[in-house]
Write a structure and sequence with these properties.
This protein is an alpha/beta fold. It contains three helices and 30 strands. It folds into two domains: 203 residues, no CATH class; 77 residues, Immunoglobulins (Immunoglobulin-like, Sandwich). Helices cover 15% and strands 36% of the residues. Strands 2, 4, 5, 7, 8, 11, 14, 17, 19, 21 and 23 form an eleven-stranded parallel β-sheet that branches. An eight-stranded parallel β-sheet has the order 6-3-22-20-18-15-12-9, with no helix packed on it. It has a four-stranded mixed β-sheet with strand order 1-10-13-16.
């Protein structure tokens, strides 16, 4: 009997060892899985930051393990700055557009062709019919994107908030106030999507700022309702409004495009630059203290007119003097055919502008202007 028991003991010991090893491996696997950060889990604090100043950098672990998001296909919408599938498009005042304008149901009225770098589809045609399908596909793509983060307090959106690339959702009508920063973390292909379950309103003088490589063509806003851009607000990205009107008030600037599935689009002395139109901004940094001054502009801030004075011995007589708005659209141009020239600036609505003096395609001087009109 004793020998039989010893035989069973010798046979059972290896199985005990195997069982203990199996439990140990399982425990180690669980520890490793919990120690690896998974996308969207336990990282929320790294994707949204608020405060009065920009941090030196967003923590790099916000991008580690984050699934890359591809931008949705634009289709025929890529040529349009303003488009409505079902609604009129109208303008009043001096509005500058880069890109096409059109509607598939309604009319386009009030735009000056000299201020539109693109085609104005006055009536629905084959092109607007094709754009209708592209806009519906674009909306469907944005609508199906899985949400990475729910943003609370839609009424307090902005206020120096910093967002990094992913899909955000706000569950009610939203007010953008002060400044919103979109931080691409050094990736020029980073895609942002902000889904709003309600109307979007931007406060006067509010701004959307792109930093660290972010591009307006990769920023998408899916709005379930109307969009109102208040005076002098600066907005960036592709707006897709579902069943809502879009209104751009005086001085509003859109570095992007505005589309609606159903609703009117109204602009008043506004600026829209479609990023897919491949137009360089041409905006230079303001003149530095060490740069040789070839000309002066006075008064600045400008009113209904201002005067350009070339220095007496300037080599740049007959140079080109151009003024651009804040998103880089040329709004005024003149050849400096004499030492002193007075420019009519009454068409410039209130805001910040940039000028540059060029000669033989070389930038000689650049600077900043402020209009008080």
């Amino acid at each position: 009997m004793l020998s039989k028991f010893v035989w069973y003991e010798k046979l059972f010991i290896p199985y005990k060892i195997i069982l203990m090893k199996t439990k140990l491996y399982t425990l180690l696997s669980v520890i490793i899985l919990y120690s690896i950060p998974m996308p969207g889990i336990g990282q929320n604090a790294d994707f949204v930051k608020t405060g009065n100043s920009l941090p030196d950098q967003i923590t790099e672990k916000a991008t580690s393990g984050m699934p890359s998001m591809m931008p949705p296909g634009m289709g025929m919408t890529s040529t349009y700055s303003l488009f409505s599938s079902n609604g009129s498009i109208s303008n009043s005042g001096m509005t500058f557009i880069t890109g096409d304008i059109g509607t598939n149901v309604g009319q386009c009225t009030g735009f000056n062709a000299l201020n539109v770098k693109g085609m104005i589809h006055l009536m629905p045609d084959m092109a607007t019919g094709m754009c209708l399908g592209s806009l519906q596909s674009l909306y469907n793509s944005l609508n199906l994107l899985p949400v990475n983060m729910e943003l609370p307090n839609p009424a307090l959106f902005g206020h120096n908030m910093i967002l990094t690339p992913q899909t955000y959702h706000l569950g009610a009508a939203t007010m953008l106030t002060d400044t919103l920063y979109l931080n691409a973390l050094g990736d020029p292909n980073a895609v942002f999507c902000i889904q709003i379950n309600g109307a979007l309103t931007t406060a006067a003088n509010s701004r959307v700022m792109l930093i660290n490589g972010a591009q307006s063509k990769n920023v998408f806003w899916k709005i379930e309702g109307a969009v109102t851009m208040s005076a002098n607000s600066i907005f960036r990205g592709i707006i897709v409004s579902n069943n809502g009107a879009i209104v751009m008030n005086s001085g509003a600037m859109l570095d992007g495009a505005a589309f609606t599935t159903t609703g009117a689009i109204t602009t008043t002395s506004s600026t829209v630059v479609m990023p897919y139109a491949a137009v360089s901004t041409a905006v230079e940094v303001p003149v530095s203290p060490n740069q040789e001054v070839e000309l002066t502009v006075a008064p600045n801030p400008v009113g209904t007119n201002t005067t350009i004075h070339l220095k007496a011995d300037s080599k740049y007589l007959n140079g080109s003097f151009k003024i651009y708005n804040i998103v880089g659209v040329e709004v005024l141009s003149s050849i400096l055919s004499k030492q002193t020239i007075t420019l009519d600036t009454s068409r410039l609505h209130a805001g910040i502008y940039f000028y540059k003096l060029t000669d033989k395609n070389k930038v000689i001087q650049s600077g900043k202007l402020i209009s008080q009109n």
